[in-house]
Amino acid sequence: MHMTKPSTSSVWVHTLLKLLRAQGIDTERIVSILGVSMPSEPNYDLRVPTEQVSKIWEESVSQCNDPSLPLRLATRWPLPSFDALGYALLSSPSLLSGLERMSRFLSVVSSAAVVTVQSKHDRTTFEFFLHGGGYKIPHQRYEFDILCFLQFFRWIMGRHLDTAEVELAHEQSLDTNLYFNAFECPVKFKSGSYKIIFGTEETLLPVPTSNHALTIVHDDYLSRCLDRITPEKFTPSVKDAIFNTLAEGEPHRSNIAKILLISERTLQRRLKEEGATFSLLVDQVRKESALKYLSQPRLGLIEIGCLLGFNSHSNFSRAFKRWFGVSPKDYRNGKVH
Fold this sequence. Notes:
The protein is α+β, with helices and mostly antiparallel strands.
């Protein structure tokens, strides 16, 4: 069994292409140029690599020469885009419950996407992160996804969600009115991450179509979907343990085995069964985490290297250049090949 590369459901990509065509984009040419494998109709079992989704965005913006493209795409088909996850949110008892369900099951739509939900005092934060694979993600892709999430949440609640605010990690590149008209709420830039922030009280309101019996059915179905697309049962636990100990320095197999309450021999055997090695997982966790940390301007490059468990900045730089072909500094400055 091999590690699954970050990918997005072709149903989501199919909807995206449909929206782009409505804006006059020659999507057939883009798909042909990029060699994207797309069915003529939505196919829930076919997935598209995250790098190709980013390239679709780049080609589309370039073709129409309009960086405001994602703000003009109306999400008219939310349920097909979000697959069964959309129906699960519709049956959730509250918006907060739905947000947490989104965090748990989003891999059904995209294994390249990670959502964390945190409620603190009177604010609930929905934070969104995308894995780009070996390709830098265009900020237009982030804008479109955040806009889809926000409009979808409003749709299932049947209300505007007056307390909503949006934070975008990139710099403002368009007129303020374009962003406000699209998101219909305050938008903050250069925040270090991509977030939708709600008033907690509003997230506790009931979803109009809430249905406890259906929630159980949907959760069971989505759990089986996750089992099908992420068959590895052991590897994620190892990666989580590695991530949680990175800041302490170079991860050691013996220490991770102790954390997982197994022997080193068992750790090696189970990883081998899933086609993975300990050193490969350490490298993958560092690579994935590096992109997330670099998207946070408040973190310095030396600090990021320490968080990734490197004993020197030069070691971090060498590893990063091996992963992405550029130095961490150049990547942060947008100098990507």
